[in-house]
Amino acid sequence: MERAKAKNFREGRLFVVATPIGNLKDITFRALEVLKGVDLIVAESPSHTRALCNHYQIKTRVTRFNQHTKEGRIADLLEILRSGKDIALVSSAGTPGISDPGSDLVRRCVEEGIEVSPVPGPCAVAAAFSVSGMPSDGFVFLGFLSTKKGKREMELKMVKESRRPLVIMESCHRIKETLRSIRDVLGDRQLVFVREATKVFEEIRYGSVAQILDELEKEAEIKGEVTLVVGGAKETKASASKTTTGPQALAIRKAAKELSKVYGIPYGMLKLALTKTIFGLKDGDRGKPEGAKQIRLACKGSS
After folding, report:
1. Digit-coded pLDDT (tens) for 173-183
2. What is the mean pLDDT of residues 71-94?
3. pTM of the model
4. Which of 122, 142, 177 is the last residue before a domain boundary?
5. I need a labelling partner for 250 at 20 to 30 A (CA). Which of 1, 49, 64, 137 fits?
6. Gap between the Cα atoms of 96 and 19, Å rounded
7. DSSP string for residues in the chain
8. How many domains does the chain contain in total?
9. pLDDT at position 261, please?
10. 162-176, 216-230, 263-277: which has the minimum mean pLDDT?
């Protein structure tokens, strides 16, 4: 079992442990070692995690931690960690802290000075993108979009101009609605549809948004969570001439200010990073006239 080497270390450590997204064989030796060695496993879905533990004969106690219980549980878990006990944080599947409540516990541990260690492994986002065949110089992760149509379409409009692929997670119950929003806001782009990855009924579809949506409309029932990889915006003369002005620029400035307040990162640095991400700019674009112009405008007025 891994322990901190500092001589005066008294507190426990939070291990953020990736678990299989479907196939139980997709787990690392280190993850099994940590799960067996910690004092407590904090799980998004205890029943799901207990099945994994039973499979590998792990006897560690499992307790619930999800979006419904997190507010009342964080203080208790911090106290357990301060007492010198180690905790493993797991999600229902994959890597914790990515579109799940685990990030709240991690943030509080960081704020309290409690050591946090990653135990990397399976990740639905990385798995889907790895089989997408899309440009691998970066992507924009949107997680789960809003369940409300208006807000969902606004979220998509925010990244409409990005030339990087978009990765979106969705449940089987809302996948058709989400695809309709993607089609209406982003247009009929290239799409990779990944469902039940690594499981017995794994399904990967390649095509356009309209094509795959049409196929799904004919199906009575869709099961399992889905990860979508949507092609980035194609550069046109119109998009190449756009700069960071208007509603999109306002949203970037607002987000940069809020993040700067929360994390203490310089406003200008955050504004630049957000602009490069939203507009799909790369480091090499600094040397190109249009890229340099957008970056210069993004930094204008930074403080």
Report:
1. 999 999 999 99
2. 93
3. 0.74
4. 122
5. 137
6. 9
7. ------TT--S--EEEE-B-SS-TT---HHHHHHHHHSSEEEESSHHHHHHHHHHTT----EEE-STTTHHHHHHHHHHHHHTT--EEEE-SSB-TTSSSTHHHHHHHHHHHT--EEEE----HHHHHHHTT-S--S--EEEEEPPSSHHHHHHHHHHTTT--S-EEEEE-TTTHHHHHHHHHHHH-S-EEEEEESTTSTT-EEEEEEHHHHHHHHHT-S---S-EEEEEPPPPP-HHHHT--S-SHHHHHHHHHHHHHHHHH---HHHHHHHHHHHHTT--GGGGGSHHHHHHHHHHHTT--
8. 3
9. 79
10. 263-277
In a domain, 1, yes or no: no
Work out the pLDDT band at 246, boundaries 50, 70, 90: low
Beta bridge partners of 206: 192
